[in-house]
User: Which sequence fits this backbone?
């Protein structure tokens, strides 16, 4: 159905263009003289030069915006602002480049006497045909427009996406009105149609919370475990690189769960955007070392074989 409608539209446009050219050919021989070709070459050369310069400047603007966004700190107002500017720069640049080169194409057609009226008239018919046959394209474009206007995420943000094809997690590398490019943690580049995004979880907005659960034996005194962790966290509060990742000093919540073999003590810390995972890894390493030094007993990890002389830390 769609193919037939488009074929009819194209056939009508071609027929009108051919008829117009044949009608003008007899009385417009001077149009294709050497002087006409020279003038056309100059005008077309200038137009192409301006288009190439504009394209180069737009792409340089996008690269500069992305570089400045990467250099900005995540926790300051400057970081989100620069990522927003980088996202807008990419969208505006792509749109302007399409407009510029379509305009160049129309200019070339007009220079050769091709009537543009039938093309614009047929655009409405083609638009109706595309509206019936390309609902997915329209859905993706509208979704991308609202993502950009509402600022749901920007280039450089770390996100979790729930899509119709499954979950996608990683860093936003590109955003257009139709697709979102996500670089996953293993390096895979995923291209996600905007219309298929159902839930967006942005991990680089405002702040994060590092959560570390420490499993210790049921026989251990909770107050002794808390004191050991409090002493360690007081030492780590201003230690780098952890100190630069934190918004607030880490603290011990206490026992949050009891199992048949362990009690789970939770440590939390409010972090700067994007530093939650690094803070959790750092805290796990230091807590493991401290409870081993203090001789705090921990249960074996379920399903793991305890090596002779091993600590068996259950973090």
Assistant:
């Amino acid at each position: 159905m769609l193919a037939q409608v488009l074929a009819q539209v194209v056939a009508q446009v071609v027929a009108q263009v051919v008829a117009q050219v044949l009608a003008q050919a007899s009385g417009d021989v001077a149009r294709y003289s050497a002087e006409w070709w020279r003038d056309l070459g100059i005008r077309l050369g200038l137009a192409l030069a301006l288009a190439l310069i504009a394209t180069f400047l737009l792409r340089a603007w996008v690269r500069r915006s992305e570089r400045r966004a990467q250099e900005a700190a995540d926790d300051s107002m400057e970081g989100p602002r620069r990522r927003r500017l980088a996202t807008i720069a990419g969208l505006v640049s792509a749109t302007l480049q399409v407009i510029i080169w379509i305009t160049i194409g129309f200019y070339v057609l007009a220079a050769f006497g091709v009537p543009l009226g039938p093309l614009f008239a047929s655009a409405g018919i083609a638009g109706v045909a595309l509206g019936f046959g390309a609902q997915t394209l329209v859905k993706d474009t509208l979704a991308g427009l609202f993502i950009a206007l509402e600022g749901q995420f920007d280039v450089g943000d770390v996100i979790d996406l729930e899509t119709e094809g499954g979950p996608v997690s990683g860093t936003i590398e590109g955003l257009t009105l139709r697709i979102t490019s996500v670089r996953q943690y293993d390096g895979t580049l995923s291209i996600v149609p905007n219309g298929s995004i159902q839930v967006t979880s942005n991990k680089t907005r405002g702040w994060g919370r590092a959560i570390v659960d420490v499993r210790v034996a049921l026989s251990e005194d909770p107050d002794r475990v808390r004191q050991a962790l409090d002493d360690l966290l007081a030492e780590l509060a201003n230690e780098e690189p952890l100190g630069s990742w934190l918004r607030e000093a880490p603290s011990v919540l206490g026992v949050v769960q009891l199992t048949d073999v362990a009690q789970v003590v939770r440590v939390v810390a409010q972090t700067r955007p994007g530093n939650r995972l690094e803070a959790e890894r750092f805290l796990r390493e230091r807590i493991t070392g401290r409870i081993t030094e203090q001789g705090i007993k921990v249960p074996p990890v379920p399903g793991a074989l305890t090596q002779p002389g091993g600590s068996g830390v259950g973090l």
In short: Confidence is low (pLDDT under 50) at residues 305-313. The chain has three domains: 2-133, 152-202, 208-293. Residues 156 and 178 are 18 Å apart (CA to CA). The first helix runs from residue 2 to 25.
